[in-house]
Amino acid sequence: MTRFVFITGGVVSSLGKGLASASLGALLQARGYRVRLRKLDPYLNVDPGTMSPTQHGEVYVTDDGAETDLDLGHYERFTGVSARRTDNVTTGRIYTNVIEKERRGDYLGATVQVIPHVTDAIKEFALSNVDDEDFVLCEIGGTVGDIESLPFLEAIRQLGNELGRERSMFLHLTLVPYLKSAGELKTKPTQHSVKELQSVGIQPDMILCRCEQDIPAGERRKIALFCNVPVDNVISAPDVSTIYEVPICYHDRGMDQQMIKHFGLEEPEGDLDLSRWTHIIDSVKNPEGEVTIAVVGKYTDLLDSYKSLAEALDHGGIANNVRVNMNWIDSEIFESEDAVHHLSDVEGILVPGGFGERGAEGKIAAVKFAREHNVPYFGICFGMQMAVIEAARSLAGIEGAGSTEFGACTDPIVGLMTEWTRGNEVERRASGDNLGGTMRLGAYDCTLADDSLVRQIYGETNISERHRHRYEVNINYRDQLEAAGVRFSGLSPDGILPEIIELPNHPWYVGVQFHPELKSKPFDPHPLFTSFIRAAMDRSRLV
């Protein structure tokens, strides 16, 4: 029997519903339950694929090629359960599906309304594609009280009634602010938020209270009294020094115990085994050294744009028992000044993914510095493309090397992908196609050269990694580039699409067309990040 936990947020946005959901999922896993996590987003975009990363944060890509919310990254990293296309939906997708049904005549001439047609579509999504999971955790995006989230709240209210208390639970995340001038915690915002939730017919079963410090028993009793929730179900969620402390923090305050009690499940004998989390926390808090990595990107104004990347770098640090200090640098500064000093004291340089011409020449300048000064270099997606362009110009003497993404160029080292294979099918694209959902998305296979660095790093010849890109390194320039010293060490199984390049005469220089950060987990760091951080450590010893 699958049980559903609906997670809502109130008072303010960015309280960490995704992290709370992921942590709860990890705690339920530790108890031996099978979990799946889902995100229901109230915005009208069909998916986040065409949204600005400085507004929405990164786009997290699943194995089956869905562009999803970044919270699905938290879910995967904390639980190890691979997300699917059916684990994230938006209002835009819901309305698109409803309108398509109406156009086909599926509603038999009925007047299409928010209730029941839209809410039924939301309920159908929440309940769909459930296999043998014991728990499905459904996070509702946005903040209770926002007009756009009302259909979702109505849908989960109905689901709560239909499933019954034995199969459903409502968890509400709120803020309990601390006023320094008054020297006290204020519970009123939480009370108002719960009243807002009650006004749409939902009574929360548990309240998770974000705060700067632990909430004393008196304030918890006050929240319990005014919000009609048992005091043991008012859970304090204080700030912690690392996100990997959150599962243990919640467990210590009885969150998972009370949830188990709500569903009438038996407590296992003995203490819960959370050793993998204590090990990670110990590695983060007590490193044996540190390295500094320069991340030269174009969305550095909002670091959520690189959420999975930052986490993957931390995972590489955990694997090597070092702290990774990330120096976030806007690539445009390399175009307006001699900015070499920004890179002179770092142990590694990473150029992440991105789109568009802005900041591209700055990234090329950073690549050139890494190559000439033997600084470990890691290029991801756009970062690989810029590395190939730099090598074409500087090593192969192809002065007109560029990318057609930026307009016409003499030598299109990087060009628009017009077709590629996915399984037994050939997918085709044209320059005039819609932007949304038309990239090479999801998991694709890659074959590694036997005597390459990446073959040594992975320990196997055939790998699968997730992609999200529209442009590709032009395989027709392979001979010229390899003659200049660039090794094409990873290709698609048909040998047409370049996936990985490296410089054999460099301490550590790897560019990949895919996004390895999307598959990295704290308890299973990605081998490329582990190796990159190890190379940075070696350099730190030499400097």
Low-confidence stretches: none
- The first-level CATH class of the largest domain is given as Alpha Beta
Instruction: Please tell me how large the radius of gyration is.
Output: 25 Å
| Global geometry | globular
The CATH architecture of the largest domain comes to: 3-Layer(aba) Sandwich
Percent in strands: 15-25%
Q: How would you write the strand order of the largest sheet? A: 13-12-14-15-25-24-23-20-21
Number of helices: 18
Structural class: alpha/beta
Please report the total strand number as a whole number: 25
CATH superfamily of the largest domain: P-loop containing nucleotide triphosphate hydrolases
- The amount of helix comes to 25-40%
Return the domain count.
2
Mean pLDDT: 90
Largest sheet: 9 strands, mixed
The rounded distance between the terminal residues' Cα atoms is: 59 Å
The CATH topology of the largest domain corresponds to Rossmann fold
